[in-house]
Amino acid sequence: MGVGASEDHRHASYQKKQNGGGQPQTRSSKFRTFILIVLTNLFTIYILTGPYSFDLEVPSSRLQSFTNWNSTSSTLAAELHSTKQQLATSHSVITDLLHRLNSTNLLLQSLLIELSTRRSTNSEDDNDVHQSITTARQLIMNLPREVQLAMGPHKLPLGFHPRTGSDEIHPPVGAGCLNYPKELEQFLTYEVGGECPLDDVFAQRMMLRGCEPLPRRRCHPRSPRNYVNPTPFPESLWTTPADTSIVWEPYTCKSYKCLVDRKKFPGFFDCKDCFDLEGREKVRWMVDRGGLDFGMDQVLATRPRGTIRIGMDIGGGSGTFAARMRERNITIITSTMNLDGPFNSFIASRGLISIHFSVSQRLPFFENTMDIVHSMHVLSNWIPDVMLEFTLYDIYRVLRPGGLFWLDHFFCFGSQLNGTYIPMLDRVGFKKLRWHAGKKLDKGADKNEWYFSALLEKPMS
Ligand SMILES: *[C@@H]1O[C@H](CO)[C@@H](O)[C@H](O)[C@H]1NC(C)=O
Ligand SMILES: *[C@@H]1O[C@H](CO)[C@@H](O)[C@H](O)[C@H]1NC(C)=O
Ligand SMILES: *[C@@H]1O[C@H](CO)[C@@H](O)[C@H](O)[C@H]1NC(C)=O
Ligand SMILES: *[C@@H]1O[C@H](CO)[C@@H](O)[C@H](O)[C@H]1NC(C)=O
Known about the structure:
The protein is an alpha/beta fold. The chain has 14 helices and nine strands. Keywords: Membrane, Transmembrane, Transmembrane helix.
């Protein structure tokens, strides 16, 4: 549940991944890409500096006419009128140009995708692969020693091994990290063996921008003072932990009571009422209302009894989905970011497994292994279409045949429903078991804002 605040970060991180990540290019395609980028940039510069740009300075002739107000007032009025018209014309020209720029960007994006597809079939790639590794290596070599040590490469002590096909190893760090050398340096600046800086918010921002996974560090996270033993299971499932069980990051709230109460505060918070275990969390998925809210037991009843045993909840807020599944002897791993609150710590305190990674990342599970994947309010139209399609394929990959994908409350606009998302889900290959689309009913919601909930199945064959 709830990722709103980070939407832009994630969006940005994916764009980066799409354009910057992936395989190296052949010389000719590199050249074409280069030309395209130059052209697009020239186009942007042209818009910003060209004849259509707004000139906010009042010409001196007009300033003079202000001193002669009476005599020239009618002239001035006429001039103002014509200026207004000119502005209106400029505005429509700019709108038109923005539209064209938009389509140029889309064109560029699709060309890049096409180029990367072609690249994968090209056999001259090896040289380029080595070239890009050298570049990454050079970049790392210019950063401080701890960055070099954290990011490698390191020679294998026993030399070449056929299992890896190499004599060296690169610690796995997101390729996106290389886009942020300054932040990397900051992240890896600490006293080795000492206490890590209290920088989880900073680190998570790096992750959301595409530096995922982060490099490892040689320091100790701060320990909570007056740590008390966790509440024993199963009471832990519905117990709010002690404030002393964690180190409080610089969040808006600095206590669990504040987090519980924040649903009453004005302003925007992700998963606003998630920490209140006596509130809405208590009833979620408990009743099948026949609309967007499917009941958990009704969903499980679509499979033979006991055959849904393991799965994951993508963006699972405070872990209530996993808690309810645990009560049904089903093990769910919950992924969540710490969005202005200690979501991961809270889930863990309930005796459930949380993992801290964003929706940009490939799911760390092997194919055909999961009985169920659930996701609520996270996968929505803020995700670029191409990225969403990759995400859906990844979910399909980890589900076993006959496994369930419960896509809960997917938000979009009416036209996108039929135009984009239904065809996409069909294309990926899911079979619909249950489907409900409905207009968003929240106060202030646009008429064209929709949700859909879907129970999908990975086909048996
Ligand atoms: C401007 O108009 C007012 C009244 O209409 C008049 O009293 C004044 O003399 C005029 N000033 C000039 C500079 O014409
Ligand atoms: C550019 O495209 C996006 C979606 O593709 C759209 O939301 C936006 O309104 C467009 N902007 C202009 C100026 O056309
Ligand atoms: C969960 O498993 C325990 C132990 O095997 C069993 O006693 C209990 O009835 C199960 N609960 C459900 C809801 O299946
Ligand atoms: C989508 O298409 C279906 C069937 O063609 C139609 O009934 C429905 O109204 C459409 N939904 C929207 C939001 O346009």
